[in-house]
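Q&A FORM
Asked by: J.P.
Topic: structure of Diacylglycerol kinase (ATP)

PROVIDED:
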Amino acid sequence: MWILKTIDSFNHAIAGLIHAIRTQRNMQIHLTAAILVLAFSLFFDLSRIELGLVIVAISLVIFAELINTAVEVIIDILSQEYNFKARIAKNISAAAVVIAAGNAIFIAYLVFITKAQELSLNLIFNIRHEPLHLIFITLSLIFILVIVLKSIFSSGTPLKGGIVSGHAALAASSVLIIWFLTRSLIALSLASVLAFLTAQSRLEAGTHSFKEIVLGTLLGSIIAFIIFYYFSI
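REPLIED BY: S.T.
REPLY: Here is the structure written out as tokens.
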């Protein structure tokens, strides 16, 4: 079925990302920087355009690093001995990463420098953001952390199994997000039922163990609670 083929395609793509994170030191640095920038953006009242620029800059750096890694692997396969042209190809692909990183730094300067000058301790603790911004940051951080944990512990596949259940993490975070946005017990109850069914389906299918589902639930709940408790309206 085309759905299964599509899932397999995503699985292979994320497997490539996990391999790059696990084996490439620069990718680990870029991903750490991405997490810090996304978390740091919570302290600033970014517009949608500014947030979009930050996301594009992060994506471009990671994209360039993935291409650079792929080029290096292909060259190492094709050229077992020292080759001047192979060296040039590696240098060019590395230059693409440098340009992308420079672009990210420039965008960060334009977006954050003015707001940083206006930042105060009171603003840090009292700043309020649009719900969509908080939701995006929350889900992005959870997704990145799930991928990082799977790459560290090398268990399961990107979309199936692993040290933590990404589905449980996202479902648990959604429950808290809905509660903070609506303050409705009915909405909270319905969201909790859906989250429970999601976790149960992963357990019954044998995709995750009970421990992995609990860890995923804790991960999603903690991140969502911290972000929405301190930064929501």
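FOLLOW-UP: The chain is about 80% helix and 0% strand.
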